[in-house]
Amino acid sequence: SDYMGVNPFDDSPMSALGIHNDAESGFLAQWQGNSLKLYASLAAQKIGQYSQSSELEKQQGLLRLGAEYTPRFGDWELELAPAWKVQDYSYQLMENPQYVFTSNQSITRHLGYGNALSAGLKILGHSEYYLANTVNPVLVEASTALDAWLGVKIGPLFDFRVSAQNLLNTSIFGVYPIPFSMHAGIRWYFIN
Questions:
Q1: Would you state the torsion angle of the CA atoms of residues 36, 124, 48, 14, taken in this order, to the nearest 10 degrees?
Q2: CA angle 129-12-3, nearest 5°?
Q3: Distance (Å, rounded) from C-alpha 121 to C-alpha 78?
Q4: Which pTM value belongs to this model?
Q5: Could you read off the pLDDT of 57-110 as tens digits, one per residue?
Q6: Do residues 102 and 82 lie in contact, with contact meaning Cβ atoms separated by under 8 Å?
Q7: What share of the chain is helix, strand, coil (3-state, %, to 5)?
Q8: CA dihedral 177, 178, 179, 183 (to 10 degrees)
Q9: I want to staple 85 with a disulfide (CB 3.0 to 4.6 A). Which of 65, 100, 113, 180 is the partner?
């Protein structure tokens, strides 16, 4: 195959790039206590990258680490859920950062009768990597995105949430997802 695509704007031919994670095998270890869950995975993955100008296959080691901690202290509930993915780095592989991390954390105050107040943060980030461009690879610098939210739950069927998205006003994985902005949402469940 020559890995040529069609430009959707003017139907001209353009180079295409195929990236495939053909296989992954490894070991997973997990431990769970009352409010703590830990896991680690050590694996090897086979990645193929195919374009008009080259074909590349690599075996890559990777490590996944994560935790979930959800203690409850009376009417207060805490949630911490960090996760990391670390893999062998190759400058030849595109869209393949060495580190990817995410973390969700929240605190909730349960008020009784199904009511609650809550607040939280979500963090997503990665190390630098090359953007898939078969002619001239572009380095995408390391980046972190941060969202924050406040919520009110009134009974089991209604909740209201205000969130600030992309607080750092950054791109993530080479894409500018949304400018810093405020959002509000209401969910009301109707049950017959």
A1: 160
A2: 50
A3: 12
A4: 0.79
A5: 888 999 999 999 999 999 999 999 999 999 988 877 878 899 999 999 999 999
A6: yes
A7: 0, 70, 30
A8: -150
A9: 100
